[in-house]
């Protein structure tokens, strides 16, 4: 799961699942699926060839070998803080991978390490499902295995060598692991085709009962109400020296048509959802990354954990390994439920996992990226050139262009920002420049224009120009005030969503003189 935080290492360093009592040679196996036994009424003839293994038998053996490797790997990484955690990806995936990675990182940051090895007292294969109908949707062959582990010789110590393991920690317990084969089509029989431990859970877990949840939960975690549609983000005041915006103002749009600029151009798409699912790190493409309700009967959605969060009620008793070495009152244990995969695990967290429904929307994060772009108004290129001794002539073409365009005045420019568990990448580009010519005419140019050269003579600009029909003598100071206003389009992508933001109103001005030809002759 993406950016999972605040998992804590289980003191046994064995798994994230919950111990449910002793299991080493005590006969207290969890409820298991009966395994057929061979008839012993008559011995098999010694001349008969061994019965070929079935696909299920091969899968069981390969998955069992993987489980042993999984525990060995977790032990080794707990014991050797300098070893890369990359080895985890060869034995775990999805929720299990994220949980172990974060747990071991937390242990290493606290200068703690494991001493001793986990002993696997017993492995019981409970079920084999070889359905490989839709791997992209997570429907791959799986084997469920009950593991009896013994951590009586395992300790976790701090930098001084002092044990941090609770005295009430059980030394033995059962964990049910699900091993998934994402490469079954290419390697159905080899152990290499069964690489990842996908999930772990209590062997006595039962389906959650929504009716048993706190009746006030839905009210407390209600999704935020609708946010008004956005039309344009308009610059109300521009720094005349730098061309950068000093004051941006959000202009609300019609909810039925948010952000319509009145023409054929792009429209502002609004805020996006603050809560999103992304199964990419779990190797799951169906459903694809995208928005999810910020709360439902399972709890509130946390982007950081990629699941719905709800505190376990009542909390597990002291000594339960779900506390991962902590005591009741030191943080809490939470259900972490992914409806997209129907996975449920228990996690310990010192603080409540972040509620993404109260966090920023993708649009708000995109605006953080926009702030990093330092967008500003264009530098004006115009002929006749502004100046005391420069005068244009009525009826002669005026050329308009963006002088020395760069990523800050014309684009494209791309920046990324992260907040609230959301990372958004935004790209900005000028869509058009509206030239207010001072005589009541607006010239809209969708290109940067063509810089004028003396060789062009009295030709008109091929893409951005104007012709004055009257002199500027009647204007204030005898000049036309020319205003160039840039309209930017920002496209953003993140949180499994895409959107568009319109930024209008970055303005630069200049003044030019235009006279009658006969006046210049006299």
Protein described:
This protein has 2 domains: 55-208 and 313-353, Roll (Nuclear Transport Factor 2, Chain: A), CATH 3.10.450; 230-270 and 360-521, Immunoglobulin-like (Sandwich). 12% of the residues lie in helices and 31% in strands. It has 5 helices and 24 strands. The chain is elongated. Residues 1-22, 24-28, 31-47, 198-232 and 250-262 have low confidence and may be disordered.
Estimate the strand proportion: 25-35%
The arrangement of helices and strands along the chain is: HHEEEEEEHEEEEEEEEEHEEEEEEEEEH
Largest sheet: 8 strands, mixed
Give the overall average pLDDT.
75
Radius of gyration over C-alpha positions, nearest whole angstrom: 34 Å
| SS class | mainly beta
Q: What is the CATH topology descriptor of the largest domain?
A: Immunoglobulin-like
Helicity level, as a percent range? 10-25%
Q: List the uncertain runs.
A: 1-22, 24-28, 31-47, 198-232, 250-262
The CATH fourth-level homologous superfamily of the largest domain: Immunoglobulins
Total number of domains: 2
Looking at how many chains there are and whether they match, the oligomeric state comes to single chain
Short description:
The chain is mainly beta. The protein is built from five helices and 24 strands.
Question: Topology, please?
Answer:
Elements: H1 55-79, H2 94-109, E1 113-115, E2 119-129, E3 142-150, E4 155-157, E5 172-180, E6 197-201, H3 217-220, E7 230-238, E8 245-252, E9 276-277, E10 290-291, E11 295-296, E12 299-302, E13 307-311, E14 332-338, E15 343-349, H4 362-373, E16 380-383, E17 391-393, E18 397-402, E19 413-419, E20 422-436, E21 442-445, E22 465-467, E23 480-494, E24 497-515, H5 517-521
Parallel strand pairs: 7-24, 17-24
Antiparallel strand pairs: 1-4, 2-3, 3-5, 5-6, 7-8, 9-10, 11-12, 12-13, 13-14, 14-15, 16-18, 18-22, 19-20, 20-21, 20-23, 23-24
């Amino acid at each position: 799961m993406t950016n999972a935080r605040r998992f804590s290492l289980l003191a046994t360093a064995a798994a994230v699942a919950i111990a449910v009592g002793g299991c080493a040679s005590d006969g207290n196996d969890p409820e298991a699926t009966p395994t057929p036994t061979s008839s012993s009424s008559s011995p098999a003839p010694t001349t008969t060839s061994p019965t070929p293994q079935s696909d299920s038998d091969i899968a069981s053996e390969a998955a069992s070998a993987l489980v042993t490797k999984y525990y060995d790997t977790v032990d080794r990484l707990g014991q050797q803080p300098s070893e890369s955690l990359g080895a985890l990806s060869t034995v775990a995936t999805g929720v299990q991978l994220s949980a172990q990675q974060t747990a071991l990182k937390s242990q290493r940051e606290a200068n703690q390490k494991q001493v001793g090895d986990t002993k696997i007292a017993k492995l019981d294969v409970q079920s084999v499902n070889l359905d490989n109908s839709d791997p992209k949707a997570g429907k791959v062959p799986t084997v469920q295995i009950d593991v009896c582990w013994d951590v009586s010789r395992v300790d976790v110590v701090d930098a001084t060598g002092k044990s941090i393991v609770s005295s009430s920690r059980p030394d033995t317990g059962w964990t049910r692991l699900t091993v998934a084969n994402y490469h079954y089509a290419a390697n159905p029989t080899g152990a290499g085709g069964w690489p990842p431990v996908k999930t772990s859970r209590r062997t006595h877990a039962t389906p959650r009962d929504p009716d048993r949840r706190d009746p006030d939960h839905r009210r407390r975690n209600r999704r935020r109400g609708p946010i008004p549609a956005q039309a344009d983000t308009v610059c109300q005041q521009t720094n005349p020296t730098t061309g950068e915006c000093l004051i941006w103002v959000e202009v609300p749009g019609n909810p039925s048509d948010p952000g319509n600029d009145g023409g054929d151009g792009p429209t502002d798409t609004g805020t996006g959802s603050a809560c999103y699912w992304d199964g990419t790190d779990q190797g799951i493409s169906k459903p694809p990354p995208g928005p999810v309700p910020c709360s439902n009967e399972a709890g509130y959605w946390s982007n950081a954990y990629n699941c719905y969060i709800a505190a376990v009620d009542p909390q597990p008793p002291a000594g339960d390994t779900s506390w991962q070495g902590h005591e009741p009152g030191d943080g809490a244990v939470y259900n972490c439920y992914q409806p997209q995969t129907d996975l449920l695990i228990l996690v310990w967290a010192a603080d409540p996992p972040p509620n993404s429904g109260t966090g920023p929307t993708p649009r708000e994060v995109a605006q953080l990226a926009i702030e990093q772009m330092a967008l500003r108004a264009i530098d004006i290129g115009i002929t006749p050139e502004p100046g005391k001794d420069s005068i244009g002539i009525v009826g002669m073409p005026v050329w308009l262009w963006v002088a020395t365009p760069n990523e800050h005045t014309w684009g494209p420019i791309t920046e990324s920002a992260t907040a609230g568990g959301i990372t958004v990448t935004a790209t900005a580009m000028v869509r058009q420049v509206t030239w207010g010519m001072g005589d009541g005419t607006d010239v809209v140019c969708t290109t940067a224009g063509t810089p004028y050269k003396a060789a062009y003579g009295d030709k008109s600009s091929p893409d951005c120009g104007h012709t004055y029909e009257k002199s500027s003598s009647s204007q204030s100071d005898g000049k036309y005030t020319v205003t160039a206003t840039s309209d930017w389009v920002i496209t953003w992508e993140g949180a499994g969503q895409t959107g568009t933001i319109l930024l209008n109103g970055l303005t630069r001005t200049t003044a030019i003189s235009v006279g009658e030809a006969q006046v210049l002759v006299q």
